[in-house]
Amino acid sequence: MALIFEDNIQMVDLQTQYRRLKQEIDDAIQEVLAGAQFINGPQVKAFASHLAHYLDIPHVIPCANGTDALQIALMSLGLQQGEEVIVPAFNYVAAAETVAMLGLIPVLVDVNACTFTMDVTKIEQGISRHTKAIIPVHLFGLTCDMAPVMRIAEKYNLYVIEDNAQSIGASYTYASGRTKKAGTIGHIGTTSFFPSKPLACYGDGGAMMTADDNLAKRLQMIANHGQEKKYRHKLIGCNSRLDTLQAAILNVKLNYLSEFNRRRMQAAERYNEAFGQLPYIVTPCKPAYTSHIYHQYTIQVKNGKRNALQAWLKERKVPSMIYYPASLDKQDAFRVYARKAGSLEVAHQLTQTALSLPVHTELRACEQDYIIEQVIEFFRQNER
Ligand SMILES: *Cc1c(COP(=O)(O)O)cnc(C)c1O
User: Fold this and answer.
1) Which of 89, 169, 214, 220 is the most buried (most CB within 10 A)?
2) Could you tell me the domains of the chain?
């Protein structure tokens, strides 16, 4: 099929999305420029309470980015050098990185082959008398299975920090049927507003969320140089702020988060239908305990031809990404700092099979048809 698009297909199309929201966003930016309170302007507080309301949690503390959010969350727990924090082995680097940077030891736990998130049946293998916290990461748009995580945390008296950079707006359903938004279940949730994330600004941004008044106070202080009042430093902190401009943009975009998530869900459903019968593709799974907002649409290519498929798609102007090409135990930076809990074989396997296809709020049906056709044609020509 020789389809010519005006613009190339993109993994994430921020330009078209901006054009759609231009008036509202431009107005919000103009308002900040006119008010000139570029740091801690009223829009920052307004956005924090807007997000707290959306997530149904008492405290949202904005900060400079999602990695800072993890770092500040860890700092707030008062952990000692050499204590251990459990993180998934198949993940973006931020959680393990902030753990190691604070002199703590990341303990890498394998992930579930179906959901890509931490395998809750393997967490206990990673627990030692030094373990203090677990960081479940809600990867690609769904949630980790939080009820078992919280049960284990309670049993061993551990903190839980949910890294929710990729699944904001997704919700977790307990066996009782009660639901909670991702990021509001553990002691602290963290998120990122990096431009490609589900809730995104036009630069860097992040936030922490908690229902615990005491933790909220510590998080707030640490993000602001550990200040209790101006020039009174109670804790060692850092300087991590969400710009007023970014908060104003987020305040607009938060109104569209449910719509954005719904658009990606619809695109994912079309992919699922098209690929469901292909023998070499495992489509993303969605267990009953979670919704899936498809931050990524990630398939597993089972015939050993993941890289060949990616090259084939690239030739046909279809972008795709490998999240993630190496598990953390195979990264040079972590060989000395991390401890492995078990063999991590699923994480290793996913680095060879996972491929993320374009899924974004502006993906057009004709573009998606073209992508689907190219994928199907690849497998037709590579039967075995
Ligand atoms: C993007 C991301 C982060 C880091 O966010 P930044 O804002 O880029 O610092 C952390 N964890 C996960 C899972 C992410 O996807």
Assistant:
1) 89
2) 16-110+117-254 (3.40.640.10), 257-381 (3.90.1150.10)
Q: Which atom of ligand 1 lies nearest, measured to the CA of 194? A: 7
Distance CA 272, CA 134 (A): 32
From the CA of 5, how far away is ligand 1's center (Å)?
Answer: 31
Say what the pTM is: 0.97
Report how far residue 27's alpha carbon sits from residue 227's, in angstroms, rounded to the nearest whole number: 33
Q: Is the CB of 165 under 6 A from ligand 1?
A: yes
Give the nearest ligand 1 atom to 91 CA: 13
β-strands 59-63, 131-134: how paired? unpaired
Q: pLDDT tens string for the chain (384 positions)?
A: 455 566 799 999 999 999 999 999 999 999 999 999 999 999 999 999 999 999 999 999 999 999 999 999 999 999 999 999 999 999 999 999 999 999 999 999 999 999 999 999 999 999 999 999 999 999 999 999 999 999 999 999 999 999 999 999 999 999 999 999 999 999 999 999 999 999 999 999 999 999 999 999 999 999 999 999 999 999 999 999 999 999 999 999 999 999 999 999 999 999 999 999 899 999 999 999 999 999 999 999 999 999 999 999 999 999 999 999 999 999 999 988 899 999 999 999 999 999 999 999 999 999 999 999 999 999 999 875
CA distance 249 to 56: 21
